[in-house]
Design brief:
mainly alpha, globular
């Protein structure tokens, strides 16, 4: 629990949506890029997240220096730290994105390794929902800090100065994961042997043949496919609502406060009380409500209320989808299968972001309301797919502590 909390706190600081997010958006906007150009330019950052199954496959099958997880955590977090340090000296958007690709590669692979540990331990103990709630609660605690600090940097420094300062601070996050791994990850050394390799390969083949896995994958793809209005909303708040950078950063922190509370509520009151299927139905309804609520974004007061409310209720769909994904992971191939599902999840999200920005710029004449209604309609359409989902939650551990079935999964933000 301590390790998962620490690592996700560091990821909340370090990933593309963390501290560097607002300074980066502000710098690209100040460089003259439109919202759809920004979405397309940053689209390449999704590639390291889409190929996550590759990291999981390598760590599942090929131990590095005797460890399936620990050595890779050292290596890839070191790569992420190097990418952020390189970014501190860059000004050209294309080179900035190149450095961000390195950071995304390191953080995405680290995420796979940590999630593999979470699924392994969670299936052994029956604590997947608690582990995931712990992860995302601390992720959003970090997001509270990044929203305030990112907004302050963007408001008080030049766009380039804010970006470079954010990159320097963010480099500390993957470095902290290296330290946490050294002290908190207990993993027995292992070597490649034929029996283990055959068992892992068999699990991978079974996973790829699993009808349940593909049904869950299809649902996750559709859930995240609704056109996103994240980038257009940033432009809308700056150009139309005239919000300053510091206030926009504060809104991110307010949303993260709601998300922390939402993660706690999910862990304490929802995760163990309702089946995953029941939570999926609730998540679709809550997702539609939180989306359509943005029609009432008019001024600073409504922005604060909406940010908190949508952050809070948005964690229920998010954690429900994670639990659904983890439930489809077979033993001995947790890293590969969970990463595969998350790749589909992230790929659909990026297509959603590009599609939403294109509609905003070229079809809807920069009008937010139609985009919000389209996104809401796609979210509600997911109701028709729920009956096809597996109804079995993660099973209780067998008496010997070994998992004898499926585990759990992750949703749409």
């Amino acid at each position: 629990m301590v390790f998962f909390g620490l690592v996700y706190f560091a990821q909340g600081l370090g990933q593309a949506g963390g501290l560097i997010n607002q300074p980066l958006m502000n710098y690209l906007k100040a460089s003259g890029l439109t919202s759809d150009q920004v979405a397309q330019l940053l689209g390449v950052l999704t590639i390291p997240w889409i190929i996550k199954p590759l990291y999981g496959l390598i760590s599942d099958l090929v131990p590095l220096l005797g460890y399936r997880r620990k050595s890779y955590l050292f290596l890839m977090n070191g790569l992420a730290a190097a990418g952020f340090l390189w970014l501190t000296g860059l000004l050209t958007p294309e080179w900035i994105v190149a450095a961000m690709v390195l950071t995304a590669l390191g953080i995405a692979s680290s995420d796979v390794l940590v999630d593999a540990l979470m699924v392994e331990r969670g299936q052994q103990t029956g604590q997947i929902k608690r582990f995931q709630s712990q992860q995302w609660m601390w992720f959003n605690i970090a997001a509270i800090m990044t929203g305030i600090l990112g907004g302050w940097l963007s408001e008080t420094l030049t766009p380039a100065g804010a970006l470079h300062t954010a990159a320097l601070i963010t480099a500390c996050a993957p470095a902290a994961v290296v330290v946490a791994t050294a002290f908190l990850v207990r993993e027995e050394k292992t070597a490649i042997d034929l029996v283990q390799f055959k068992a892992s390969t068999g699990s991978l083949i079974s996973a790829l043949k699993s009808k349940t896995l593909w049904i869950v994958a299809g649902f996750l793809a559709f859930w995240n496919f609704s056109p996103s209005f994240g980038t257009p909303m940033y432009y809308h708040m700056v150009d139309n609502l005239k919000f300053d950078q510091y206030f926009i950063g504060q809104l991110g922190s307010v949303s993260s406060v709601g998300s922390v509370i939402g993660a706690f509520v999910f862990k304490r009151f929802l995760g163990g009380r309702f089946s995953t299927t029941a939570l999926v139905y609730q998540s679709i309804l809550l997702g539609a409500i939180s989306t359509v609520a943005y029609l009432f974004l008019m001024d600073r007061q409504s922005a604060v209320i909406l940010s908190f409310a949508t952050g809070l209720i948005g964690m229920v769909p998010f954690l429900t989808m994670l639990s659904l994904a983890a439930a489809a992971c077979p033993p001995h191939a947790e890293g590969f299968t969970f990463a595969g599902l998350m790749s589909i999840f992230n790929g659909a999200s990026q297509v959603s972001a590009i599609w939403g920005a294109h509609l905003y710029e070229h079809v809807l004449d920069k009008q937010m309301a139609p985009l919000i209604w389209i996104s809401t309609a796609f979210t509600l359409a997911a109701f028709f797919l729920v009956p096809f989902l597996p109804t079995q939650d993660g099973p209780a551990p067998a008496s010997g502590g070994e998992p004898d079935g499926m585990g759990e999964y992750h949703p749409n933000g």
